[in-house]
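User:
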Amino acid sequence: MPTLETLTDSHLIFPALEARDARGILLELAAGLAGAGVVDDPSDLFARLLEREELGSTAIGHGIAIPHCKLDGLERVAVAVGLAPGGVDFGAADGQPVRVFFLVASPTRSPGEHLQSLAAISRWVKGGGRVERLLALRDTAAILELFREA
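Assistant: Predicted structure:
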């Protein structure tokens, strides 16, 4: 079973997202994955993420969202972690602004890995106090260490 520690790395952690709306967050995260060499075309990733959001918000409540999609050409599942300390309206059912984003980009040919990654994130966020601890961190090494502890 994958863990957050195995699904992400320091190049995919964005502790200070600057966007102030949902589209901006998705654009910023897509650009981050392109900058890290995970995807070639950030606009394609953005379009896929936006398509998924149009089906229904991926905000799961309590200030957390898990935007996700499948893409051709990926070698493996990649999870980016972005923090928006001020919060962003992401259409959460509980009405709370989202401050923690776990973006999951998976190879189209690996639906099982996609689901396992979503499950790993869900397990992690349910761990007592982890999200609050994550929000207090700004250093990527410290964030990775928090994922390792779990």
